[in-house]
Write a structure and sequence with these properties.
single chain, mainly alpha, Four Helix Bundle (Hemerythrin (Met), subunit A), two-stranded antiparallel ribbon, 6 helices, 2 strands
């Protein structure tokens, strides 16, 4: 199970970093179309959304009394349905500051290292009690990591769309 989770982390974040690295620095903060975030804002948002996992697993956990992966597929199906537009929670909204592409990639690499470490050193079947996912409640470490990768995949898709718009 741990090897599968780590492979998913490497693949998902590797592809995300590859897409972010395709942008020229001059394109990172360009709004590609009305109502869109910039590539820098998307990368900042996903960085905020994926950070904090080491702190979360260090918090309260308990033995899970259901299948450790029961909520993984429903969350994945929801987040990878690109016809649905989500409203970001305030705590992971991006800012309107200037974004340095290299800093964004360094931040994503750091998160990848942290998540790989979490997957390696923890019992992935434990339930995380310090965070509840709206409509899903508490998640196991496995489900949270899987959700995070679906979130990364969703925004990789968004970044590919932004890139195509800026580089016709």
């Amino acid at each position: 199970m741990k090897a599968e989770v780590q492979s998913n982390i490497r693949q998902s974040l590797g592809k995300l970093m590859d897409v972010v690295s395709r942008f020229d620095q001059s394109q990172i903060d360009v709004v590609p179309f009305e109502g869109s975030w910039t590539a820098g804002q998307v990368a900042e948002h996903i960085t905020k959304g994926l950070s904090g996992m080491p702190r979360l697993v260090a918090g309260k956990t308990e033995v899970t009394t259901r299948a450790y992966n029961a909520k993984a597929q429903p969350l994945r199906d929801l987040f990878l349905d690109f016809s649905i537009k989500f409203q970001s929670p305030d705590f992971i909204l991006p800012t309107k500051t200037v974004h340095a592409q290299t800093k964004l990639i360094i931040g994503l690499r750091q998160i990848e290292t942290e998540l790989l470490d979490v997957a390696d050193k923890n019992d992935l079947t434990l339930s995380l009690l310090d965070f509840e996912m709206p409509q899903f409640g508490t998640l196991t470490i496995y489900e949270m990591l899987d959700f995070m990768m679906a979130h990364a995949q969703r925004h990789t898709h968004q970044l590919e769309h932004i890139y195509a718009r800026l580089n016709p």
